[in-house]
Amino acid sequence: MRIFLILFTLSAIAIVGLFSLVHGDPRPQLEATYWRAKPDVSRLPDPRDVIPIEPAQPEGAGIHKCVKRGKISYTDQPCPADHDQRALDPERSKIVTLPAQKPAAPAGAPAARPAPGGIDIADDGSIRRTH
Q: Where is the sequence biased in composition, kind Low complexity (predicted)?
C-alpha cells in the first residue's frame, strides 16, 4: 500500500511539473482572471441615491400555502383544519394578484387568447396555465 501511495505522489508531482514546463506558471493568468472578475466599485451607483421599491406583496400580507394530499393551494385566509400549512419560500415565491373575474371582451370583438405559457382565468374562476 505504501508503494502505491509513493508511486501516486510521484506521478502527481511529475504531471504538475510537466504541465508547468509546457504551459508556464499559471499564477499570472489566475491573477489576471481574478482582477477581470472583480467589479469596479467606483462605477456602481451610490446606495444613497437608490429609490426603494415597494414589494409586490407587503410583508405579513397573510398569504398561506395550504397542502392536502400533495395538492397545494394558496389563500389569504388561514388554512382549513384538514390542510397542512407550509411556509412560503420568499426566494421562489412571486405572488401575483389576479382579478377575481375575467374581464369581459368588448362587444363584437373576439375573445383575447393568452400567450403560450401565460395564465388563463376560466369562466368558473379557476386559473390554469396555457400551453
A: 99-118
Cα dist. 83→5, 88, 115, 126 in Å? 58, 15, 33, 20
CA dist 34 → 19, 31, 43, 48 (Å): 21, 5, 18, 28
Sign of the four-CA dihedral 27, 32, 34, 35: positive
Hey, what amino acid is at 122?
Answer: A
pLDDT in tens, 86-101: 877 766 666 566 666 6
CA 4 from chain center: how many Å? 46
Contact 63, 57 (CB under 8 A): yes
Over the stretch 40-60, which tens digit does the pLDDT of each residue have?
A: 777 777 777 777 666 555 555
- Would you say the C-alpha torsion 67, 72, 75, 80 has a positive or negative sign? negative
